[in-house]
């Protein structure tokens, strides 16, 4: 999902939520993302909502599984991203059964009880109140329909050829900063959200919650897309002044990724991180429950 407000522009001047960044990130993990979609076992002919679709990078993967007899509705809050998604789709094989609309996640442009799947990738990290948003999405699903949330968790990120103590200080400083920065006017962000998703779906009223984890490992030599991705992430860890890190730690971290002796160019380079895909079923409340809710609402 593209976010209207820039979170951080790295040293290349590239906002980490900009289209180019999203495309680079997507390309660097293409094989794992294909597997994620296959593992969902989405039925042909499904009506699927891509909630926070951004520039439509996941659309081809989703279109493969729903097929031409299905339908995909991509929604996003960014007009720019939706324009790019439509352009990407215009001359594609899936154009006839995909459409895009501008909307927020908690107010989807469709009737209640019609979607088979609501899929949302790398969006929950930007939600200050994810439980409320997930709960608001539920009624748009058919009875027994599934919400699928995919996201990162940088608590799982490890570089095997970087000093472990330095990594720990950098990661802890960023996690602490994310807990503080929203109070200083920055947009909300939780890059440790992946491992929390199952509990969020449970709190939002979903059942039969299933969590799949995907360990993404890259070793030297690295494709350019992954180098660009990792350099962007490395710079992001020390952005906005890195208030909880010493100047020496910032410099050491920078040297690891951007100096002539970058760890990315070493034959012993190995990076691992785990991404989370969590699904939950939505069951529509009975008419009696709905009446009780309406009565309670009127009496308040």
TrEMBL record:
One of its GO terms (biological process) is methylation. Keywords: Methyltransferase, Transferase. InterPro entries: Methyltranfer_dom (IPR025714), SAM-dependent_MTases_sf (IPR029063). CDD domains: AdoMet_MTases. GO terms for molecular function: methyltransferase activity. The keyword Transferase applies. Residues 43-165 form the Methyltransferase domain. It comes from the Bacteria. PANTHER family: TRANS-ACONITATE 2-METHYLTRANSFERASE, TRANS-ACONITATE 2-METHYLTRANSFERASE-RELATED. This is Methyltransferase family protein.
């Amino acid at each position: 999902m593209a976010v209207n407000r820039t979170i951080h522009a790295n040293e290349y001047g590239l906002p980490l939520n900009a289209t180019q960044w999203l495309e680079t990130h997507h390309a660097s993990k293409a094989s794992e993302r294909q597997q994620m979609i296959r593992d969902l076992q989405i039925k042909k002919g499904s009506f699927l909502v891509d909630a926070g679709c951004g520039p439509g990078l996941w659309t081809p993967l989703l279109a493969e599984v729903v097929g031409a007899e299905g339908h995909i509705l991509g929604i996003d809050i960014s007009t720019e991203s939706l324009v790019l998604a439509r352009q990407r789709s215009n001359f594609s094989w899936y154009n006839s059964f995909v459409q895009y609309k501008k909307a927020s996640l908690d107010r989807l442009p469709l009737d209640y009880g019609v979607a088979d799947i609501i899929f949302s990738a790398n969006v929950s990290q930007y939600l200050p109140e994810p439980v409320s948003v997930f709960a608001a999405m539920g009624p748009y699903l058919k009875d027994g329909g599934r919400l699928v949330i995919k996201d990162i968790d940088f608590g799982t990120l490890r570089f095997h050829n970087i000093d472990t103590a330095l990594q720990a200080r950098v990661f802890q400083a960023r996690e602490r900063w994310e807990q503080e920065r929203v109070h200083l006017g920055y947009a909300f962000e939780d890059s440790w959200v992946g491992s929390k998703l199952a509990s969020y779906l449970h709190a939002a009223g979903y059942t039969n919650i299933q969590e799949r984890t995907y360990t993404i490992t890259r070793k030297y030599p690295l494709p350019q897309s992954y180098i660009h991705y990792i350099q962007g992430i490395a710079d992001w860890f020390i952005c906005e002044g890195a208030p909880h890190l010493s100047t020496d730690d910032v410099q050491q971290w920078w040297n690891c990724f951007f100096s002539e002796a970058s760890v990315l160019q070493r034959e012993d380079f190995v990076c691992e991180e785990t991404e989370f895909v969590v699904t939950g079923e939505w069951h529509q409340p009975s008419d009696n429950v709905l009446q009780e809710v309406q009565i309670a609402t009127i009496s308040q």
